[in-house]
Design a protein that fits this description.
The complex is a heterodimer. By secondary structure, chain A is of the alpha+beta class. Chain A has a single domain, classed as HIT-like (HIT family, subunit A, 2-Layer Sandwich), CATH 3.30.428. Chain A has 6 helices and 15 strands. A 10-stranded antiparallel β-sheet of chain A has the order 3-4-7-9-8-13-14-12-11-10, with helices on both faces. Chain B has a single domain, classed as Response regulator (Rossmann fold, 3-Layer(aba) Sandwich), CATH 3.40.50. Chain B has a 5-stranded parallel β-sheet, with helices on both faces. In chain B, helix 2 packs parallel to helix 3. The chains are: A alpha+beta, B alpha/beta. The interface between A and B is medium-sized, with 17 and 18 residues.
């Protein structure tokens, strides 16, 4: 019997098509077609990118935009939103519009062209998470922006256009609809129970241990109760915090450790699966929020979105998270 | 005389651009797909490439990355009717990304900028 499940934060329903009884090997991953050739993100080609806004690991004494670096952050060369200008909010009858102001930046995660994010050394991955934090802090000084969205597309099917490992951030003058819904859903729970729903999820998942993928002293990875796709994972800090930008050095290192562990397990179950991950954090300039808890959501690209999903907002997921979690746990034991 | 390699699968574009750029004092050589572009590039040694993206076979961004691998300093201007290829970070290898228009001023200015 299929099962309908409700995401407790967003109220979003999903359908678990349990009778299909999928296994990880049932998913066919199209081999990524790599075009090869010149890479604008590789060391030595720095002049093909806009000048860097932040860099980590540059050899002391070397000039900006030279080829010695470990992580580099550059503005998008052909951005969808532009950094210069005023918002100029306007009404057109009942419709609202404003200028397309925003910051779109690319975080080049490694100098090595063929190195996957999941294969980065922990120290290197820590630098990537440091870059996310530092860019959010820097962009929060711009009063035009309300939110910074950090995300990664891995694999062409998940939207990555270039094989050189990179992630992106977009600073927006408005709060994305998804963030508004998450804030509202978690606030509604908080008003009713006087507790953070994410803290409750952490407690329950540790206690039940049926969707707990892995954990360390600062973070846990869970397969959420109502996942949109098979092998969806959330990484949450154990300690309540609403803003990613508050994370300290030890937290960054522990985050890198659990990310590497989680992606390693995912890769062991479905090698080279395309995925997206997105950082969910509080809006810029917000006071610390008791009801919201920053976290990452990792969504493998294993299902497609078609008419039913567009029309209903439901997702159809052929594998219950309890099953995917079991596979992910076993993958960890085999390592 | 500076030489431009024009890569596009549409005859109309070749007719129009050839006339306009020859009038500006450039020599124009034509290629109609990606493979031909690489071949012509090696034969003709152009000073600049105007490159369409949406072509049968190898698309313009793949061609761009191949050309830049051979000659990183070669100026390449992507010229497409579509803006969505801007999302492809491979397009960063180009000097400019210009959306096709009946008004060639922007394209002509970009060519002038790189061929001065």
């Amino acid at each position: 019997m299929p099962e309908l499940r409700k995401d407790p934060i967003l109220g979003r329903w999903i359908i678990i098509a349990t009778e299909r009884g999928k296994r990880p090997t049932d998913f066919i991953i199209e081999e990524t077609k790599t075009t090869g050739g010149f890479c604008p993100l590789c060391p030595g080609n720095e002049k093909t990118t806009p000048p860097e806004v932040m860099v980590y690991g540059r050899v002391p004494g070397m000039p900006p935009n030279s080829s010695s670096w470990l992580v580099r952050v550059v503005p998008n060369k052909y951005p969808a939103l532009v950094i210069e200008g005023e918002l100029d909010k306007q009404g057109e009858g009942l419709y609202d519009k404003m200028n397309g102001i925003g910051a779109h930046e690319v975080i080049i995660e490694t100098p090595n062209h063929n190195e996957r994010f999941s294969d980065l050394e922990p120290e290197q991955m820590t630098l990537v998470f440091t870059a996310y934090r530092d860019r959010i802090i820097d962009l929060s000084k711009d009063s035009r922006f309300s939110y910074v969205m950090v995300f990664k597309n891995y694999g062409r099917a998940a939207g990555a256009s270039l094989e050189h490992s990179h992630s992106q951030l977009v600073a927006l003058p408005i709060l994305p609809r998804m963030v508004v819904s998450e804030l509202a859903g978690s606030l509604s729970y908080y008003r009713y129970k006087d507790r953070c729903i994410f803290c409750d999820i952490i407690r329950q998942e540790i206690q039940q241990n049926v969707r707990l993928v892995c954990e360390n002293d600062e973070f846990i990875t869970v397969a959420p109760f109502a996942p949109r796709t098979p092998f969806e994972m959330w990484i949450l800090p154990r300690k309540h915090a609403s803003s990613y930008s508050e994370i300290d050095q030890q937290g960054l290192e522990r985050l890198a450790a659990i990310f590497k562990e989680s992606l390693g397990r995912l890769d062991a179950c479905i090698p080279n699966v395309p995925y997206n991950f997105v950082l969910h954090t509080q809006p810029l300039r917000s006071e610390p929020l008791e009801h919201f808890h920053w976290h990452f959501e990792i969504v493998p690209k294993l299902t497609s979105i078609a008419g039913f999903e567009w029309g209903s907002g439901f997702y159809i997921n052929p594998m219950p998270p309890e099953d995917t979690c079991r596979y992910l746990q076993e993958a960890g034991e085999k390592k | 005389m500076k030489k431009i390699l024009l890569v596009d699968d549409e005859d109309g574009i070749h007719l129009l651009y050839r006339e306009e750029f020859e009038e500006e004092g450039y020599e124009v050589v034509s290629a109609y797909n990606g493979d031909q572009a690489i071949e012509k590039f090696q034969e003709e040694k152009p000073d600049l490439v105007i490159l369409d993206i949406n072509m049968p076979g190898m698309n313009g961004i793949e061609v761009l990355r191949r050309l830049k691998e051979i000659s990183p300093e070669l100026p390449v201007i992507l010229s497409s009717a579509y803006t969505e290829y801007k999302q492809d970070f491979g397009s960063w290898a180009s000097e400019e990304y210009i959306v096709k228009s009946s008004d060639l001023t922007e394209l002509k200015n970009a060519v002038k900028k790189y061929l001065q």
